[in-house]
Amino acid sequence: MTNKLVLPTSIVGSLPKPAWLAAPEKLWSPWKLEDLQLLEGKQDALRITLQEQDLGGLDIVCDGEQTRQHFVTTFIEHLSGVDFENRKTVRIRDRYDASVPRVVGNVARKKSVFVEDAKFLRSQTNKPIKWALPGPLTMVDTLFDSHYKSREKLAWEFAKALNQEAKELQDAGVEIIQFDEPAYNVFFDEVKDWGIAALERAIEGLHCQTAVHICYGYGIQANNDWKKTLGSEWRQYEEVFPRIQKSKIDIVSIECHNSNVPLDLMELVRGKKVMVGAIDVANNNVETPQEVANTLRNALEFVDIENLYPSTNCGMAPLSRELARAKLSALSGGAEIIRKEFGCSANKMIKKN
Ligand SMILES: [Zn+2]
Fold first, then answer.
1. What is the pLDDT of residue 1?
2. Are 311 and 12 in contact (CB under 8 A)?
3. For a 10 Å CB count at each end of the chain, is N or C smaller?
4. How far apart are CA 128 and CA 125, in angstroms?
5. From the CA of 118, how far away is ligand 1's center (Å)?
6. Would you say 163 and 198 are in contact if contact means Cβ atoms under 8 Å apart?
7. Residues around the ion ligand 1 (C-beta < 5 A)
């Protein structure tokens, strides 16, 4: 389905939640409802997030992460062997402290985590659905492990659990399964030694499309401060792209707009599909469609048009809802400008003479 679309637009993952569901504009925001009301509230939020993406003109839709508190810890909390009541504070990606679950025994997926949510979303839309899961390396970096004492061993167990979940999501009608690996931009040795292997274990046997999202993080202070230390050229992708290129992953999601990433690094994943981040999530200014189009036009020097998927730099969970909606419209507006330049519509490529 997605293969036939031209410049199919989508977001990386999260959108802000309604204020009646969770306190807005913060990460790890606690739920405001309980039990059955919470279940109903989450489904209502899924309906709203779909409508917002539809009105924003997106071609590929997702759950906006409305049913999860956090993109990593919510998945981990559903596994056995994890104690999420006695949390521990750890330093994430060597950058900021967060209270996270603890691994206290063998981790295993006893039941599905997001599959019911995916089935619900599938029942509400005919558009292609993309579903984000955390990647194994980012998972081991977002918890405290007092059992395996080996990041590699733990990542391998997570990869097995992710694979089980991914297969059920695929069977529920998800067209693209995306793994979020912001930690790939930090722990290059681990990416090389076992990070890509763990990711390939997570996608083993899938026939839907698969994506990996590698970014410079949400627009929170710790990430913004870190970016200031990275200099005038951010070349982190240079370390991981050659390995992604050789992997079975179909799509790479990257940060572009307002970043110092040299766009020619995309040459290193030539042939893969690239979700190009044309919306800055760390900035309260709304991009104009022209700005989005400029980013896409620049990316087209290194990515063939049939492989370009316009997207956001990262998740929009910490933004205000109004701002997020405006950014969605800018994204689809920018994609439309480029389609017109190429004489095509979202649904078909028109051959020019
Ligand atoms: Zn991200």
1. 57
2. yes
3. C
4. 8
5. 21
6. no
7. 215, 314
